[in-house]
TrEMBL record:
Gene name linked to the record: yflN
Name of this chain's protein: Putative metallo-hydrolase YflN
Lineage: Bacteria, Bacillati, Bacillota, Clostridia, Eubacteriales
Catalytic activity, EC: 3.-.-.-
Keywords: Hydrolase
Cited InterPro entries: Metallo-B-lactamas, RibonucZ/Hydroxyglut_hydro, Sec-metab_biosynth-thioest
Species of the source: Pelotomaculum schinkii
Length: 317
C-alpha cells in the first residue's frame, strides 16, 4: 500500500494553497511541489520535515500540469536536490523560456471582439508568479499509460486533457486513489482553458470536448477517493463527476439561449454572462465562452462567420 501524504503549499492565487502530495515509499516522490516563491519553498520544506523526509531524499517530481502554482518548484528540486522531473510532453513548451500565455491567446481575444480597453487590461494584469521553467536536465516526458513503481505499490499515468492539453492524473489501482490535479475539484469547476493547437496555433484545441470525454471516462473507473489539486478530497466520485457534467451542460444551454435569435461575437456573449469581470478574468470569461461555442459548433448547434477578423455566432437553423 502506498503512503501518500498531503502538503499544503501556499500560493498567491485566489484559489488558495495547492495540494502537493508526497509518496512516502521509495523512491520518494512529490506530485505538484507548488509555486516558485519564498512562501512556497517554506511550505513545502515544512511539509517534508513533518513527514520526516529531507529534500535531498526526493528522487522524483511528477507535474500534473504546467500551471505555476503546481509546477514552479520542480526546477529547484531538480537543480538543488537532484530530483528527476516527469511531465507530459504537451506541457513542455509552456515550461520553456520565452513562453507567454497572453501572447498565445491574443489572436483569440482579437477574434472574440474584445475591445481595445479590455484587451489592455488583460495584457497588463500580470501573474504574481514567475513563468515556471523546467531544468535543463533530468526532465522525462510522459505520454500517458506509463506506470511508476514503488516499494509497496504503483501508480498509473492517465492523460486527461481539458484543463490543460497535457494534464495528467495518477491512479493507484490497489487503493483506488485517484490524484486529479486540477481536472476535478471539490468546490470549484476547473476552467477548460483556451489553448492554441500546437500544430496549428491559429486554431484552438477542442478543450471542452476533451474535458467531457475525461469526465465520462472517470464515470466508468473504480475510484475510491479523489485527491485534488486544491481543497478537500472528494469521497463520492460518481456524484461529483455527475455534478460537473450537469454544470457543463447547463453552461452550454445558457450560451445557446443567449444566441437565440441573436448574432453576437464571443466577447458580447461573455459580457451577457459576466457583465462585471475585469483584468485577467476577461480572458477566463472569453476562454469559457469559446470552449462552449467550439463545442456547440462541432455538434452543428451554432455556426460562425468572420467579419473584420471577428467571429460572429448564430444558431445553425
Ligand atoms: Zn491549473
Ligand atoms: Zn491549480
Amino acid at each position: 500500500m502506498l503512503d501518500i501524504r498531503k502538503i499544503h503549499v501556499p500560493t498567491p492565487y485566489q484559489v488558495g494553497p495547492v495540494n502537493c502530495y508526497l509518496i512516502r515509499n521509495r523512491p520518494y516522490t512529490l506530485i505538484d511541489p507548488g509555486p516558485e516563491s519564498a512562501e512556497g519553498r517554506k511550505g513545502l520544506l515544512a511539509g517534508l520535515t513533518a513527514a520526516d523526509v529531507r529534500p535531498d531524499e526526493i528522487e522524483q517530481v511528477i507535474i500534473s500540469h504546467w500551471h505555476a502554482d503546481h509546477s514552479g518548484l520542480a526546477r529547484w528540486l531538480s537543480e538543488q536536490w537532484g530530483a528527476q522531473i516527469y511531465v507530459h510532453r504537451l506541457e513542455k513548451p509552456k515550461l520553456t523560456p520565452g513562453y507567454d500565455k497572453h501572447a498565445e491567446r491574443l489572436p483569440f481575444l482579437r477574434e472574440a471582439g474584445v475591445p481595445a480597453g479590455d484587451l489592455e487590461e488583460v495584457l497588463n494584469d500580470r501573474d504574481p508568479l514567475p513563468g515556471p521553467l523546467l531544468p535543463a536536465t533530468r526532465v522525462n516526458l510522459l505520454e500517458g499509460g506509463e506506470a511508476f513503481a514503488f516499494t509497496g505499490g504503483e501508480i498509473q499515468v492517465i492523460h486527461m486533457p481539458g484543463h490543460t492539453t497535457g494534464h495528467i492524473c495518477l491512479y493507484d489501482t490497489e487503493s483506488r486513489i485517484f490524484l486529479a490535479g486540477d481536472f476535478i475539484l471539490a468546490h470549484i469547476t476547473p476552467n477548460p482553458f483556451m489553448t492554441a493547437r500546437p500544430e496549428d496555433p491559429v486554431k484552438r484545441v477542442p478543450v471542452l470536448a476533451q474535458y467531457l470525454t475525461g469526465l465520462n471516462r472517470m464515470k466508468y473507473m473504480d475510484i475510491g477517493v479523489i485527491l485534488t489539486g486544491h481543497g478537500e478530497n472528494i469521497d463520492d466520485c460518481a456524484t461529483s463527476v455527475e455534478k460537473v457534467l450537469e454544470h457543463r451542460y447547463k453552461r452550454l444551454d445558457v450560451i445557446a439561449d443567449i444566441l437565440d435569435g441573436a448574432v453576437l461575437n464571443p466577447y458580447q456573449v461573455m459580457r451577457t454572462m459576466y457583465p462585471a469581470v475585469r483584468g485577467f478574468e476577461i480572458l477566463l470569461g472569453v476562454s469559457e465562452v469559446f470552449a462552449c461555442l467550439d463545442y456547440l459548433e462541432t455538434r452543428g448547434k451554432v455556426r460562425h462567420e468572420v467579419q473584420n477578423g471577428v467571429s460572429l455566432y448564430r444558431h445553425s437553423s
